[in-house]
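Quick one: examine the sequence and fold tokens given here and explain what the tokens say about the fold. Here goes:
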Amino acid sequence: MLTSTKFVRSFCERGDILKNKKLRIAWIIPNVFFYLMLIGALIFVAVNAKGIKEIGMMSLWIFILFVLFVGSVLGSIRIWYWIENGKM
């Protein structure tokens, strides 16, 4: 009889290529959206820089851009590391 523990163990040990592709897609799509948010925020700040400076919110927007940049780069590095080590 197949217990839930045996099922989970056999599912995790299979190493299906299809499973890895789905896992890659599940992690890469949000990372792509993170880059798109960064590009959109950069365009917004570039277009509205004068107005943002007038209301004194430029430092907040620079911080937001920095957080988006660091998050997207670290996400890409993590995905690349997992792919290199065969975890994904």
Observations:
- The CA atoms of residues 16 and 22 lie 10 Å apart.
- Helices lie at 4-13, 17-47, 49-54, 58-84.
- The mean pLDDT is 84.
- Residues 16-84 form one domain.
